[in-house]
UniProtKB/TrEMBL annotation:
Family matches, as InterPro entries: KR_dom, NAD(P)-bd_dom_sf, Sc_DH/Rdtase_CS, SDR_fam
SUPFAM superfamilies assigned to the protein according to its UniProt record, in alphabetical order: NAD(P)-binding Rossmann-fold domains (SSF51735)
Organism: freshwater metagenome
Protein name listed in UniProt: Unannotated protein
GO molecular function: oxidoreductase activity, acting on the CH-OH group of donors, NAD or NADP as acceptor
Oxidoreductase keyword on record: yes
Keywords linked to the UniProt accession: Oxidoreductase
Alphabetized Pfam families for the sequence: adh_short_C2
Domain (Ketoreductase) ranges: 3-185
Family affiliation: Belongs to the short-chain dehydrogenases/reductases (SDR) family.
Length: 240
């Protein structure tokens, strides 16, 4: 066993495949989400003979962060990885976006990651790793000024963390591009096809593509990588 790994936003979206891949990589995973559905995700992982716990917690509160810290301590094993995956969108054109929409996205996508990372600081073992889920959208996306701000700020937080917590803890970010998801599946076929045409790799990404990047960054194979952003976008971020 490689130690305890905490994954936030574990009840859906990218959280499920990341949690599964982390467990398959030998971690005892602690899955965290506001939704009680996270319990079923943990059950499914355990049914495969892997190690998983869950915690239903609101990480926008001190109580929620404390509950996760207590759950880590209860495992009795070193904390070796934290994956800050929790995130939301509240899209709107800039001129139509409300302050509430902007603040909601900053709260969940940025401040939750900051609170939990700092709340677990005394529990991180030597050689542990923090991976935060940014996005290719950090480069700019129409109608997502709040999301773009949160994801670019998360990269800044990651780089600051990598400098200040080295060498005990490494910190990196993963920035997914166009990924097959309920959101992309809901797009009109012609719109989605047009987006895929702009991807040099010639296909839409999968959730497992992203999960594999996370597992790499927390592994010993990435032991000399910190303060970096791994963009999982099939080359879209460098395409014309």
């Amino acid at each position: 066993m490689r130690g305890c790994a905490v994954i936030t936003g574990a009840a859906g979206g990218l959280g499920i495949p990341i949690s599964r891949r982390m467990a398959e990589a030998g971690f005892h995973v602690l899955l965290v989400d506001r939704s009680p559905a996270v319990a079923q995700v943990a059950d499914d992982i355990r049914s495969a003979g892997l190690l998983a716990e869950h915690s239903v917690a609101d990480l926008s509160t001190d109580e929620g962060v404390a509950a996760v810290a207590d759950a880590v301590r209860a495992t009795g094993i070193p904390l070796m990885a934290l994956v800050n995956n929790a995130g939301i969108t509240r899209d709107a054109r800039m001129q139509n976006m409300t302050t509430e929409q902007f603040e909601q996205v900053i709260e969940v996508n940025l401040l939750v990651a900051m609170r939990l990372t700092l709340g677990l600081r005394e529990l991180f073992a030597e050689g542990s790793s923090v991976v935060s889920m940014s996005s290719r959208a950090a480069l700019g996306n129409f109608g997502q000024s709040n999301y773009v701000t949160s994801k670019s700020a998360l990269i800044g937080f990651t780089r600051a963390l990598a400098q200040q917590w080295a060498p005990r803890v490494r910190a990196n970010a993963v920035a997914p591009g166009l990924i097959d998801s309920p959101m992309t599946q809901a797009m009109p076929a012609e719109v989605l096809s047009g987006l895929v045409d702009k991807v040099p790799a010639g296909r839409i990404g999968t959730a497992d593509d992203v999960a594999d990047a996370v597992v790499f960054l927390v592994s010993d194979a990435a032991s000399y990588i910190t303060g970096q952003v791994l963009t999982v976008c099939g080359g879209r971020s460098i395409a014309p």
